[in-house]
Amino acid sequence: MPEHIATPARTNDILRRHGFRFKKSLGQNFLTNPKILANIVAAGEVGPDDDVIEIGPGIGALTEFLAEAAHRVLALEIDPRLLPVLAETLAPYDNVDVVEADVLKADLATLIAEHFDGQHRVKVVANLPYYITTPILMHLIDTPIDFASITVMMQKEVAARLTARPNSKDYGSLSIGVQQNMDVAVAFTVSRTAFVPAPNVDSAIVTLRRREQPLVAVADQAAFDKLVRGSFVARRKTLWNNLTNLFGKDEATKAKLTAALAAVDVAPNNRAEQLSIATFAALTDALAAAGL
Q1: For the chain, how are helix, strand and coil distributed in percent, rounded to 5?
Q2: pLDDT single digits (tens) 183-222
Q3: What percent of the chain has pLDDT over 90?
Q4: Is the pLDDT reported for residue 284 higher than 70?
Q5: CA–CA separation, 267 vs 277, rounded Å?
Q6: Do the two domains 8-210 and 221-289 of this chain adopt the same fold?
Q7: Tally of CA atoms within 13 A in the half-sphere of 267 that contains its CB
Q8: Which end of the chain, N or C, is surrounded by fewer C-beta atoms within 10 Å?
């Protein structure tokens, strides 16, 4: 077997022979450290009982490690220039299918039915493009597909937001939106020097698993989501300021807001980052009871 795709020498040889030029618009940064790739596969606990979806395989560096561990791998690549590269680098593996697709537009359920046998757990393992990390992650979380786990590399700063707790600068609507339905953990961090070209930020590997039940029961999910998003619109302003901008500033509305906040024992001059997910859920119910 040739040396791993991710070794710097082989990566550079592949890129040179194919005349590949990185597209900044696609957030292309390729890992050149086999040990890190092995650790990503380990973080995802990928084994022969798993079928894996990879998003953005690049030249196949992570795909190679996934193919060696998993039952099957379906790699979705948006850049058609990489298809002939992948055809070469992944030729030794008969358990890998590469499909040209945008994960945000692809019918994942159909692709899973076409490429997997339905007898294995389905996991997602990927090095997500930085410029579109959050939309892809929320798309995966919101899909009805029951992924056994999602293990993805992202900007370290985004990982901090996903795992943040109340009363921290990173805690916000993304923290709440993800933690409400997912167990989230940072497996390890990766230096920017492990990539070509080197990005401007360090990265983190995050593993997400769907909770059997939401962290907090919410009677009206749409109202809860609206409240959470609206409460963090202006982080430096008080909760009262954000709520009046969200619901209205007339006296009748202010009276209802006052009653709802009092019902859950939240001071109007608190900031959104001080409220737990449970408090946001209770406030959602209190606002509904107050007629908002």
Answers
A1: 45, 20, 40
A2: 999 999 999 999 888 888 999 999 999 999 999 999 999 9
A3: 88
A4: yes
A5: 16
A6: no
A7: 6
A8: N
Which helix or strand (DSSP H or E) is residue 30 part of? Answer: strand 30-31
Over residues 143-158, the mean pLDDT reads 96
What separation in angstroms does the CA of 13 have from each of 8, 27, 58, 191? 9, 21, 14, 23
Please report, as a single letter, which amino acid is at residue 182.
M
- In eight-state DSSP terms, residue 124 is E
Query: In the predicted model, what is the mean pLDDT of residues 65-89?
Result: 96
CATH superfamily entry for domain 8-210? Vaccinia Virus protein VP39 (3.40.50.150)
Total number of residues shown for the chain = 292
- Say how far apart CA 158 and CA 52 lie, in whole Å: 23
221-289 classified as CATH 1.10.8.100: yes
Query: What pTM was computed for the model?
Result: 0.92
